[in-house]
Amino acid sequence: MTAIKDIALKPGFDDLVMDSQRSFRALLGAMARPGNPVTLDCAPDAPEPMLPAAGAACLTLLDLDTPLWLGAQARESEALRRYLAFHCGCPLVEQPAEAAFALVVDPLTMPPLSAFGQGTAEYPDRSTTVIIQVRALHVEGQALLRGPGIANSQRFDATPLSLDFWDQVRANHETFPLGVDLLFATADRVAALPRSTSLEIV
Amino acid sequence: MNETAPIRRTSALPESGDLHSDGVGATASDATAADGAYNFAFLDEQTKRMIRRALLKAVAIPGYQVPFASREMPMPYGWGTGGVQVTAAIIGPEDILKVIDQGADDTTNAVSIRQFFVRTTGVETTTETGDATIIQTRHRVPEQPLQEDQILVYQVPIPEPLRFLEPRETETRTMHALRDYGLMHVKLYEDIAKHGHIATTYAYPVLVNGHYVMDPSPTPKFDNPKMHEMAALQLFGAGREKRIYAIPPHTKVKSLDFEDHPFEVQRWSSCCALCGATDSFLDEIVTDDRGGRMFVCSDTHYCETRRAAGHVGLAAAQGAEP
After folding, report:
1. Which residue ranges make up each domain of chain A?
2. Mutual orientation of helices A52-61 and A78-87 as an angle, nearest 10°?
3. Is A13-192 CATH 3.40.50.12780?
């Protein structure tokens, strides 16, 4: 028989309607102003290894209609899979290219951005939104961002990221309007890097 | 028997629990004056998630029309069901909502949409452009420049700028994919050939961030320059046509034109009869059956603010009130 503690689920949002709305406005603000971190003050107590802000993004955006791809560490956590199955009900997919959303716990071992769904020329919106968990977001970082949502330019970085990550982001931008959109999540903040953002390393 | 309590109930169900959703939403909504029979902002949570996902993709691909599963709303198509769904998906209890129809806060469409959101969310509303966090608009951009923390939601009837040139959706999709916008330039050129100038005065096509040609909704072309590098986020919803698109803040929005026929906005020979403004979009008002007419600001808040500040137009000086 399974002990009760093994099947106990962590709760989702305290207030499903209002916390979803607050989280979404944070995500919308982040996507509208690339590289500008936004604080999420109503993130849920997510199960390991999911960070609260990533949990908030999942609870806000995922449901039966959104195939989700989990990075290796996330996939290994039964608590996390149960949590997503219960609160979001999203189907899990094996191939990153088939996913509407992807949750990456360890950015150092994630597949290249080109492995995710890129959308089609007629429907570029059908690409993967990749939620990447990071330890920290920096607004004085090495990436100099320009593009829609940025008045002049915006400095940005996140840690940890793989050495060739910014090359991948640049290549992702060059395929515009195709490409993935990135959401970086820490414990309490999110920042976005949509495909429309160009960057140089300074 | 199924009498287990819902897991995330945070307050009591309203007694007239006429709920079509799962009930969680209405119980969680604690906005003061909202009608508890509805989920917060009317839409169910799964619909909001669907619209929210479309909005994020729309912001990520400026000017591209994202298909979404538009719902039937308790108002007819053509009354702003697209804008209403976008507003419903983003609005929260702390928001202050302004709704305008052709620039006016007090016309039928604006009044009924404002009442809809007061009833379903209990949010505070305003007519002050600067106080609003969300402004839903039908066919005008406010005269007062918008700020970083504001969101402008447009009601859009026909989102596809190429639709009257090419009726097939499959073809317009391909044209956008190939950035094949020659046909649009031919249309503007035909204006010049027929009229000597570009005669398109509203829904004037724009190029967003150098990529997608977009319909700015039937706003007068007078408002196109305001969309360029606007500090506020601009969201567009077309309910019947089931499309959402967006312009992020500080994005380049260029009205299509020719080197020898540059884009220009309309000008009036008169100024606002009430406030004397020379820099606003003017509506022509017929005042009698003998050919009498006057021009007044279409943006009622702008006009009232100017009059409160002591600006007086010709008709107001002569004691005429609209």
Report:
1. 13-192
2. 30
3. no
